[in-house]
Structure formats: C-alpha cells, structure tokens
Amino acid sequence: xxxxLQPDLxxxxxxxxxxxxxxxxxxxxxxxxxxxxxxxxPREVFAxxxxxxxxxxxxxxxxxxxxxxxxxxxxxxxxxVHITENVRALRHYFDRNVFHIEGR
Amino acid sequence: xxxxxxxxxxxxxxxxxxRKSVLPIPAANAIRWTEGLHLPRGGDTVLYTGQMYQLIPYxxxxxxxxxxxxxxxxxxxxxxxxxxxxxxxxxxxxxHPSSAERSVYDRIPHNVAxxxxxxxxxFGSLFEDDLYSGALIYDLGxxxxxxxxxxxxxxxxxxxxxxxxxxxxxxxxxxLRSVYPTLIPGYDLRVRSYLEVLAERGFGPTxxxxxxxxxxxxxxxxxxxxxxxxxxxxxxxxxxxxREPAHSGTMTWCCGGPAESLFPxxxxxxxxxxxxxxxxxxxxAVTMCxxxxxxxxxxxxxxxxxxxxxxxxxxACEGPEGESDGQL
Lengths: 104, 328
Description:
The complex is a heterodimer. Chain A is mainly alpha-helical.
C-alpha cells in the first residue's frame, strides 16, 4: 500500500483542542461494543488521521457517516478518547473538503 | 443504493440555513399539539418541542421517498435537486403525511403539557417560534451552519425573555443544554427535560398501572445528559414494573435512528436487534425519544408494543384513583 503522507492532517481535521485520536492505544474495546459492528472506525481511521494518510481516511467515508454517535464506545474507552467528538470532526472535514458544503 | 450522502447533507444544511429547519413543515402543523391547551405565549418558563416529534411523520415520508429514489435513475439527478432546493422547498413537495399519521406525534407534546400542568408547573409556549434545534446538522458536522442557527434560536429566547426551558426529547435537551453553551458566549438558559422536572417535583400519578414494561433508554439522555433515574422513578410511581434489557441505563443500545437519514437499511437492522433485546424481557416497551419510538415501532411488527413514556404516565393520571384493572 502506498500513500502520500500529510503530517498536518490531524491539525486540519481536529481544529478543536479536544480532538485526541492519538490517545487511542488500539485495545479494540470500541470495536467490540459497537452496535453496528463497524470494523475500521474509530481505531483504524483515527490511526490514518494521526499518520497523515488522507487517502485512507477518505476511503472510509461510509463508516464515518454510519456511526450512530451513540457513545457506547466512548464510555467504554479506557484511554479517554473523545470518540464521538472526533468522529464529528471527521464529518466536518468531509463536509468542507470533500462535499464542499458551504458554511454560510 | 442510498443517495449520495453529500447531497443529502447539503440539502439538510441548506434547509436549516435558509428555512430554519432541516425539514420545513407548515407552521399550523408544527403547533397543532397546543390546541385546547390555552397556553400563554412566552413567559419565564416555556415548554419547548424543537419540533422533534412533529417532524417525524415528514421524515418518514422523505426516507421512504429516498429509498424509492435510490433504486431509480432519478438518483443520478440528486445534485440537481440540491440546486433546486435552494430556491424551492423540495421537502414541501415530497412529504404530506396524513392527519392520522401526524396525530400520533402531536399527541406526545400535548401529553407532556398535561403532565406538567398536573405537576403544578407554570409554563408557556413559543408556538411558531418554537424552532428546530439543529441537532441533525450538529451530528453531521456542518458546524458553521449549526452555529449560525443556534444564535437565531437563542435570539428568540431572548426576545421572549425566557429564563427556563423545559424540553421533551433528548436531542433538543442536549443541544440546548450542552451544545449551545459552547457556541454562544453568555448563554444563560436553564434547560431540563420534562422527565427531570416531574421527578424533581415528586410527581405521582393518581392510580397505579399494573404490568411490566421493558425500558429503552435513549443514548442521548443516558450517556450525554445523565437522564437515567428520572424515567425509572416515574414509571415506578405509575405502578409499572420496569424490566431492564441486556443493554440498559448508561450502557443502553441505540435504536439505529441516527443512521436513518443516510443509511436507512443499517438503521432498520439495528432497530430489529434492539427489539429482540427488549422482547426478551417484556411484551411492552417504553421509549422517551421520537427517533427511538419510530425506529423501534417499525421493527416491532407484532412481537412487542412500543409506547412513549408520556402515554403511560398520562394514562396513570386518568380514571379513578387506586389500582388499575390490569390494562396498560
């Protein structure tokens, strides 16, 4: 797999200081409890953000928008990752940079 | 194949920006729940619907239309639809729920008003100024549109000099209590759900219903807003035995509703799984959110009866005092 890395991707996705995908320690509890059984979100997609792999992030658009934001993963997360707010930040990134939805 | 998410999100955001709701509905239908209540306009305390229950029959018709469109050649023209929607309210052409379909969802805010009155709460309504909170746009991450809309909603509260807001559904509660304060400097409204208000006042129905109900906690109430005990206290006072499904309280399982606007098939699959959990503990289930109600009811078919908590609480206030005849 080849990828163009963008070291500032995490800063561009998460403009709020609470954005913390790098806190994930990849334990997998989030995946285990997800009611929809999402396999790549949050762990893998968050890792792509941290690594600056924008192409990989964009390939997971459907999972990013399928998430129920139900917060079951977040209350179960031992690392304190702000999963739902991070997912909302990813959606905001898609809205602005992929869908070109006007802010005003 | 579902319609392009980008087009759906853009149309919803355009609607909120241009028409103050993701799905503009006729004002007369948005306030029909107030009929016969003789509520004052405004006041220190208002009962605020955020149009959430009233929107459901319209959303259901649009979701059905989207599912039909998604399988047709018309799906290729949705980008064009986004352009047209900026000039014409497309939803106004596509969604026309019947009065019977609307009445189910008008009944619930009406119930809540009656319950608050029985608890001795003084409150008014903002009627046609009772605007949608923007919850879906917040979830979809269109933050600039949401921020502008939040300022519009707050300006309405200021215009009426409102100090306390009593909400009905979890999504409006979360927006007004937890999200708006992060967007609006000096935001000073006190926001509580009617379930919290009733529980704080020690509200007790006049008779006790006998029977068991499975409780379906809303994710937003339970995990975002900490509303877990109040509905249980109220149901217990109404004489009901509350049965807890495998996932309940702060570990509740989602009804699937939040996925419905973009991925209705996934929403339906999750609703069916949740109905299975509820059915395992009781033949009836109680919800406290319009999205949970509609999604679970569609999945319930004949295996379990789904009702809003306000229906149970009001029923426990009607009829002679004492034990019920066993009918829920």
